Give the backbone structure.
Amino acid sequence: MAFEETRVRTFEESLYVRARAWRGIIVRPAVLFFSAIGISADLMSYIGLGLVFLSVSFMSTQITTALVILLIALFADNLDGEIARYRGTASDKGKFTDVVVDNVTFTVFMLGMAYAGFVSGFLAGIVVYAMLLCRTFMVIKKNVTKESDWLIKAYAGFFPNFFVYVLYAGFFLLALGYGNIVPLIAAISATALSIKALVDFRTIKKTVFTR
């Protein structure tokens, strides 16, 4: 039996909405500029992804350059959804592109960290797997409880995004010479994301598929 449609937000959804509101205020000038020159939300997503590939190419040789490019990429990543909302083109289809690109971006980042020797390949793979699993179950739950204007309702979620940015912050500290705590952050993130995925799996199994 499926969940009934509800307008009540979970605690995580409330955090996500609040964070998005603050982000919208901060990046508003950039949104106005890029909208004025015709940059679409999807194009901004792809620009951010391309910059992450470029950042990774410098990680093992010029870490400061890699950091600067990554910061620009993350800034671009925070513009796509805001541009879509400003231009009135926001939709679940566009959100799907955003979420997919975000996942690819994070995967490329972690693989780059592994290639540069900042974290083991095994641990990087575990974190990526846990992140994708967590987001997959969150999307399944979201599609049961919310209506969509497209095929599915994509959802990034505050919880997984928090750990993504904590890992980015770990690289930031590493690049500034404060030591490498990325493996510790990766281990904690993988554990937390796996637990969240397991909780969501049990919720889906009991509530959605029980007859």
User: Anything to note?
Assistant: The chain has a mean pLDDT of 89. The domain at 11-207 is CATH 1.20.120.1760 (Four Helix Bundle (Hemerythrin (Met), subunit A)). Residues 83 and 177 are 35 Å apart (CA to CA).
